[in-house]
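Chapter review: from sequence to fold.
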Amino acid sequence: MDADLTNLLRSFAFEPGRVNARLLRSADGRELLQVRVELGVLQMECTGRPDGGASVLEGLQAAGMPLGSLQTAALRLELVQLQQRAVAFLAVADAARALRDADAVLTGTELIVRRGLPLDREWAESARFSVLVLRTRCAVAAWSAAGQPREAARAIESGLQDLREAAERVGIAEGFEALGDVIALRSLRDSLVPQLPPAQRAELEARLRAAIVAENYELAAILRDELRLL
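The token string follows.
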């Protein structure tokens, strides 16, 4: 077997500034995900743990015990793999599997928050923000791929609320609106749903005021959400 990777690397060029990923089949029929990096190629399994090993996250969830430092370290390594695979799935427009992995990363991060040692919990609290950004982007991509732009916009609203709570937990709520990820998500939301003509917006606002006066708070909440998406 020729172990020289020159031909492989030449046929799968590195492109600075973007995630260059591709899906392919192995000789035994397994689906694989490859990502070109500057000095080589990362290859990941498409199901289970990306490196093909046993899932640390699943084992720790089943155990239901507090996490020691070694267990947390092993889990963090797995979460990095899952996060890398989620980003790669986004790059090949496979939003459903990207969302699956992003959900797993969020689950693992929250597991450390609940059951880790104090220093590990502190790390997980600070990491939660970037994990939620990834999870929100994956959800938006999944809804967009399904032809549901309004649901994608709602996913952004939900994600922004989760992000605000995460920012409050780590003491950065004061500058929340100026954060780059927040600005980018709001811009993405605005691009998803066409703006209503002023007359239609005014009609919705009038209906909202009437619902509040009539103490129909369920309808008011629905109308308020509609206006937020415009």
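Two observations follow directly from the output. The radius of gyration is 22 Å. Residues 47-193 form one domain.
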